[in-house]
Amino acid sequence: MKYVLPTLLIATAAMLAQDPQFTSDGQLQKPANYREWVFLSSGVGMTYGNATAQAEASPAFDNVFVEPSAYRAFLKAGKWPEKAMFVLEVRRSAAETKIGKSGRYQTQVIGVEAEVKDSKRFPGGGWGFFDVSNGPGKLLPQSAACYTCHSQNTAVENTFVQFYPTLLDVARAKGTLKPAFLAPEK
Amino acid sequence: MKYVLPTLLIATAAMLAQDPQFTSDGQLQKPANYREWVFLSSGVGMTYGNATAQAEASPAFDNVFVEPSAYRAFLKAGKWPEKAMFVLEVRRSAAETKIGKSGRYQTQVIGVEAEVKDSKRFPGGGWGFFDVSNGPGKLLPQSAACYTCHSQNTAVENTFVQFYPTLLDVARAKGTLKPAFLAPEK
To answer: Which of B48, B80, B96, B83 has its CA nearest to residue B161?
Structure first.
C-alpha cells in the first residue's frame, strides 16, 4: 500500500473537481488541460462569430469539452452544478485528399472560449462567457451575442444540450429540457 | 488521510490503464465508458464504409477516442504503448436550423469500431480491428479494408495522427512520423 499511495495521489489530482481559476483582476485562466476533459460533441460550419462566405468555403469545427466532475453531476441530475465550466474550441478545417475521399478534418485552433456557471459571480443570470484564446480572458459584457443566444436557444439551462447527443438523452430522461425548447415551433 | 483514502481509491480506479477486455472466444468487449476517454478529433464526411452519394447529402461525423493511459504515454514518447485502444464512433449529422445558420451537428450513433495494439495477440502486424457497434465484436479478418488503409496511409504507426492535431504536434517534436508520411507526394 505504501508504495502505491504516491501514485494514487498524483493520479487522483486529475480526477478531483477543477474549479474555474481567476486572476486577481477577475480574468478567467485558460484551463491548461481542457483537451483531457470530457468531449461533448463537435459540429461543423456552426459559424460561431465567423463571416458566412468564408466559413462556407472552409467551415470551422467547434469542439465542446466540459470539466469532468460537472459531466458526472449532469449524468446524475440532468443539470449543471455550480462552477461547471465548458470550453468551446474552434478549429479550421482542411479537405481530406490523400486517401481519395471528400471529407474534412480539423487543423489549427482559431479560438477558445469558456462558459462558467456561478450564481454568485454572475448575478445577472448565473453564467459568464470568456474569450481565453490567448490566455486569461475578461468576462465578456452582457451585450455580447453569446448571452442572448444561449439564453434564448439552449435546451438545458444555458447550454446547447440539443447538440450533445449523449447529454440530450440524459436530459430527456431527467425531464430537465427547457419548456421553450420543447414547445412547437411557431 | 484515512478519510480521504477510500475516495482516492474510487477516483483512481478510473485513472489506471484500462486494458482491452476479451470474451472467452476472443471477441473484444465494447468499452462501456469510451465517451469519457480522451477525444482525439472528429471529421465529417470521411465516409468510413458509407456510400458516397448518401454520405454527401447527410455526411457522417467520426469521433475518435483513446484510452487515457495510452494518450499520456503518447504525449511522452510520440508512439503508442502495447494494449493501446482506440474507439471510432460514427454518428449521423443534422442541419442546424433553429438559430438560422448553416452548420451540421451530430445525432445518433451509426457505428462503433475499435482498434487495439497488441503484438502478441495480432502477430500479423500488431494491430487488430473490431466492430463493436452492437457489443462484443470479433476480430475483423486481415482482408478488411481497415488493415490496408491504416497500414498505407497513417502518419504514426497504424493510426491517423495526421487528423489528430494535438498529437501531430507531439509526433513532429518526437520525430515519430513515418517516413512514408513525410515523403513528398508522387
So the answer is: B80
Q: Total domain count for chain A?
A: 1
**Residue range A41-83, pLDDT digits in tens:** 999 988 655 445 455 567 899 999 999 999 999 999 999 999 9
- d(CA A170, CA A162) in angstroms, rounded, equals 11
User: Are B11 and A15 a contacting pair at CB < 8 A?
Assistant: yes
Q: In whole angstroms, what is the distance from residue A119 CA to residue B113 CA?
A: 41
Q: What share of chain B is helix, strand, coil (3-state, %, to 5)?
A: 30, 25, 45
> Do the domain assignments include residue B138?
yes
Other C-beta atoms within 10 Å of A96: how many?
20
Cα–Cα distance measured from residue A105 to residue B127, given in angstroms and rounded to the nearest whole number: 24
Give SS3 for A141.
Answer: coil
In a domain, A6, yes or no: no
> Is B105 close to A166, i.e. CB distance below 8 A?
no
pTM for the predicted model, two decimal places: 0.89
Q: Is residue B8 within 8 angstroms of chain A, CB to CB? A: yes
Print the domain residue range for A85.
Answer: 18-182
- State the residue for C-alpha cell 487515457: B68
* Dist CA A109 CA B129 (whole Å): 31
ipTM of predicted assembly, 2 dp? 0.88
For chains A and B, CB pairs below 8 A equal 117
